[in-house]
């Protein structure tokens, strides 16, 4: 048999061969494929030429496969079934019955995570969400599909193979302990007498709040850094420090530690945020459901808590 040139094989011929082997005749194969018998006969002729073998021969009034045809049928059957599975439209994702595990990378936001958990449990009781820390390698894990969704703050570059959806920019507020002396006469001059607390965010570079303070020529003195947002509340409650943070990171701190909300002396108005995911999983039904669910919940949460803080904030004086 001559060497097969795979790139010249017509996949329709392989489907015709499969139908001939299953049907046992040209007429049966034509009926199975919705073709005319002459079209199937023509395809059989091309197959015989391609494989240099008669493949099916008439014996006693019936078409019988040659040894080569039997070998081809054994080898091609699993291949064609696998190809059909690969080309089929993905099964719809049913959150009500799915037990998939999804991984979301986001800085700690207990109030939002609690809100989202309730939403997901109601729609997908068997689903598991694994919250993971954002690290220096998170984008690699995201592109590889090891992380399903990641919250990205700032102008951080997104590597190839990652898609993202732009969200409304962060809204920043300043926070102090209840009864803080600065809150009685809140102004840029008053704020300059106190030191600030911040969060050490992975790969964040220069703080956007620091940039705004410099632009407005309102320098701030740092008191220290904590490694995660939930630590801001207890530190503020026990000190005279000031912290300027995004609204979405501070609901639990604000309410649990009875902090006072202030209009910030300086804060970015256009500090961007995005949700990002692997382009490889862009059309996966489960990942699509996850993105839509998380992003809607996040938008609703952000708008709600920002509105509450606007209503509670002490305005900046002269």
Polypeptide structure, described:
With 318 residues, the chain is an alpha/beta fold. It folds into 3 domains: 6-87, Arc Repressor Mutant, subunit A (Orthogonal Bundle), CATH 1.10.10; 101-168 and 272-306, D-Maltodextrin-Binding Protein, domain 2 (3-Layer(aba) Sandwich), CATH 3.40.190.10; 172-270, D-Maltodextrin-Binding Protein, domain 2. The protein contains 11 helices and 12 strands. It has helices spanning 11-23, 26-33, 37-51, 67-87, 110-123, 138-143, 188-191, 208-215, 232-237, 251-256, 285-312; strands at residues 56-59, 62-65, 101-105, 128-132, 149-153, 162-166, 172-176, 195-199, 221-226, 243-246, 260-262, 273-278. The chain has a 5-stranded mixed beta sheet. It has a 3-stranded antiparallel beta sheet with strand order 10-7-11. Strand 1 (56-59) and strand 2 form a beta hairpin. Helix 5 crosses helix 11 (285-312). The longest helix is centred in the last third of the chain and has 28 residues, at 285-312.
Helix content: 40-55%
| Rg from alpha-carbon coordinates | 32 Å
Q: Tell me how many strands there are.
A: 12
Q: What is the name of the CATH topology of the largest domain?
A: D-Maltodextrin-Binding Protein, domain 2
Helix count from the secondary structure assignment: 11
The biggest sheet amounts to: 5 strands, mixed
CATH class of the largest domain: Alpha Beta
CATH superfamily of the largest domain: Periplasmic binding protein-like II
**Count of distinct structural domains:** 3
Q: Report the principal-axis shape.
A: rod-shaped
Neighbour order of strands in the largest sheet: 4-3-5-12-6
Q: Which runs of at least 5 residues are low in confidence (pLDDT < 50)?
A: none
Distance between the termini: 92 Å
In the CATH hierarchy, the architecture of the largest domain is 3-Layer(aba) Sandwich
- Spell the H/E element sequence: HHHEEHEHEHEEEHEHEHEHEEH
Give the percentage of residues in beta strands: 15-25%
Structural class: alpha/beta
Arithmetic mean of pLDDT: 89
Family: Belongs to the LysR transcriptional regulatory family.
Pfam families: HTH_1
Protein name: LysR family transcriptional regulator
Keywords: DNA-binding, Transcription, Transcription regulation
């Amino acid at each position: 048999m001559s060497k097969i040139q795979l790139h010249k094989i017509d996949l329709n011929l392989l489907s015709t061969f499969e139908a001939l082997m299953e049907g046992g005749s040209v007429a049966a194969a034509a009926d199975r494929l919705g073709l005319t018998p002459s079209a199937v006969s023509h395809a059989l002729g091309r197959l015989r030429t391609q494989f240099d073998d008669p493949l099916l021969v008439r014996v006693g009034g019936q078409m019988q496969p040659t040894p080569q045809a039997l070998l081809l049928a054994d080898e091609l059957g699993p291949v064609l079934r696998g190809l059909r599975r690969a080309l089929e439209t993905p099964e719809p994702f049913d959150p009500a019955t799915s037990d998939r595990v999804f991984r979301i990378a986001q800085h700690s936001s207990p109030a939002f995570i609690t809100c989202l958990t309730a939403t997901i449990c109601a729609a997908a009781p068997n689903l598991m969400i694994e919250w993971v820390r954002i690290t220096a390698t998170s984008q690699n894990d995201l592109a590889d599909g090891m992380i399903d969704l990641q919250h990205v703050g700032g102008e951080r570059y997104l590597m190839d193979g990652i898609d993202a959806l732009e969200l409304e920019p962060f809204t920043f507020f300043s926070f102090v302990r209840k009864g803080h002396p600065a809150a009685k006469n809140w102004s840029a001059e008053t704020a300059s007498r106190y030191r600030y607390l911040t969060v050490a965010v992975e790969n964040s570079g220069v703080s956007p709040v620091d940039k705004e303070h410099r632009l407005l020529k309102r320098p701030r003195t740092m008191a220290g850094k904590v490694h995660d947002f939930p630590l801001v509340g207890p530190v503020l409650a026990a000190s005279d420090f000031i912290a300027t943070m995004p609204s979405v990171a501070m609901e639990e701190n604000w309410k649990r530690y009875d902090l006072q909300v202030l209009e910030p002396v300086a804060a970015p108005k256009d500090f961007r945020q995005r949700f990002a995911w692997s382009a490889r999983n862009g059309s996966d039904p489960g990942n699509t459901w996850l993105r839509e669910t998380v992003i809607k919940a996040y938008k609703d949460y952000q708008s709600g808590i920002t509105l509450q803080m606007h209503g509670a904030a002490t305005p900046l004086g002269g």
